[in-house]
Amino acid sequence: MTTTYPWTAGQRSAAKPTTLGTILVTGGASGLGAATVAAVRSAGGSPLVIDLAAPADDVPYLQVDLANSTAAEAAVHDLVRANGGRLDGVFTAAGIDSCGPLDKVPVASWERVIMVNLVGTAAVIRAALSHLKQTHGRIVTCASTLGIKAVGDATAYCASKFGVVGFTRALAAETAGQVGVTLLIPGGMHTHFFDGRPPQYQPPPDAVLNQPAEVAAAVVFALSQPPGCEIRELVVCSSTEGSWP
Question: Catalytic residue at 61?
Fold first, then answer.
């Protein structure tokens, strides 16, 4: 079976990086999501945010709990409709964790990690696909180095991020030639993600972590590729990252 793509080989080789356009960022109020919102703006794009908290800057957003997949899908359509009706890219930065042995983490907390990190990611992308297929837009999902290397006391997080890896690879195969799909695998970053954890679940004092702005630059790079050029997977981590490879 021959697959026909909306570009030719000649067009592909001569293509230049595209402008970003309108980019939806989940978890855009803090951490890597907020850094990506700033990077999108700096690159001339127009960010939209879905988060439980309001973003610091004057960015169009909707307050949504991504554990509620129905609300997440509705929020995507509502936000896009209220801001010009066009969507050029999605970055699913939102993520949570609940550390501890499997039989010690409360069931509701364990399942919420799966709902936000994996089911919420899928819900947002499911809703965004109809918009992105119109623009031949791009998706960048956010997994983790703990989506390719498992550690103890992180069953929920590893399960969710391993799930994001598999989901993204399948999505890339499913939408080839229609929507660009990139899997981002970041290592540890200097964000509030580790705040409030017991010491054994925090990076050690001498840990060297990336700044979220450094990882956000990689996200924008992936979102900026011309049609027909795919960055399928990116691992972005400190040179001394202990959770990779």
Answer: no
